[in-house]
Amino acid sequence: MTKTLVLEDPAGAAAERLAVALNEGSHVVLTGGSTPRAAYERLASMEVEWENRTLWFGDERCVPPDDERSNFGMVCKALLDRLTGATPAVRRMPGELGPWKGADAYENDLHAAFGDEPPQFDLLLLGLGPDAHCASLFPNQPALDERERLVVGVERPGLAPEVPRVTLTLPAINAATEIMFLVTGADKAAAVARAFAGKADPSAPASLVAPASGALTVLLDPPGSNWMPRVTQFDLSLSRTFRTRQSIVLTPQLDIFNALNSNTALTQVTTYGPALGNPSTILTGRLVRFQIKAQF
Ligand code: 6PG
User: Where are the domains of the chain?
Assistant: First the structure.
């Protein structure tokens, strides 16, 4: 089930989820791009058992590791260089070898670690491009049809930086136990809708991400969720009364959106249409009546 959460602080939520996955599991895949940098910086100061943990990469640009366009380089600055105690094993993609030599080397690394089985990544983090690409899987490119290899080279990326890439394939990505997208900004809103509210379509590669486990979470900020279908019209009157077990912060869009996407957000004194006003807090132990009336 895809769980879409619109949050004021998606980077914080991503950092927390990464920390939990690292403390509970062994193999976590990081994404590149600029969006996750804040999450990595937050993760660096969190309580994580880094020993016997391995960090992998979803894709890499074919540049040296100290190049400013390097995803490994970004992760070093935002996370690894900030760790004081134990450090994880880091399996970076050798992008400097070129798209296919780099892909072959990383494919061997994965087989060395996981044998012939698909890699058992505990958590795999992905970003999303404005063209709905993820990792370095670009719209309508042959890499999307790969069914055998775990890693391939990409000669011509669909977006800047215009350098060849090394990327995990869909079979490697969809074998992950859990997949989490972190996407922010209004410039991604259309891609978010194509990737997560439309049908599976190679012109929107992220729409092809479907973990066999079913565990897919999409963390968005409000601007990034602007094109997601809103509950604008449906005839439903639902009312439930319960006592809150913890303080709950309400924000207008979140209520309706999350209420329909996860049962943990069933919070509203009374909700009729958009007149929800500014965020408010319902304290622990309050009797809450959640009611929604709208038309699809
Ligand atoms: C890369 C990434 C890529 C990234 C998206 C979003 O190497 O570029 O892995 O898939 O996640 O392009 O990038 P931003 O976060 O910079 O918008």
Answer: 2-225, 232-295
Q: Quick check: 39 and 15 in contact, CB under 8 A? A: yes
pLDDT value for 197: 83
The predicted model gives 256-283 an average pLDDT of 44
Distance CA 208, CA 41 (A): 29
Find out whether the beta carbon of 73 lies less than 6 Å from any atom of ligand 1: no
With tokens 């670690």, the residue in question is 113
| 33 Cα: distance to centroid of ligand 1 (angstroms) | 4
* Tokens (6 digits) for 268: 């509203």
Closest by CA position to 242, among listed 291, 193, 277, 204 = 291
- Kindly give the distance from the C-alpha atom of residue 139 to the centroid of ligand 1, in angstroms, as a whole number: 14
Residue 246 CA to ligand 1 centre (angstroms): 36
Q: How confident is the model at residue 78 (pLDDT cuts 50, 70, 90)?
A: very high
Architecture of domain 2-225: 3-Layer(aba) Sandwich (3.40)
Closest CA to 2 of 168, 229, 184, 190: 229
pTM of the model: 0.80
Rounded CA separation 4/1 (Å): 10
pLDDT in tens, 39-67: 999 999 999 999 999 999 999 999 999 99
Mean pLDDT of the chain: 85
* 83-108 residues labelled b (16+ CB within 10 A) or e (exposed): eeeeebebbbbbbbbebbebbbebbe
Q: What is the pLDDT of residue 230?
A: 56
- Ligand 1 pocket test target in 30, 31, 62 with most atoms within 8 Å of CB: 31
Which 3-state string (H, E, C) describes 207-232? HHCCCCCCCEEEEECHHHHCCCCCCC
| CA atoms within 13 A of residue 203's CA, in its CB half-sphere | 5
pLDDT of residue 74: 98
Please give the DSSP secondary-structure letter assigned to residue 34: S
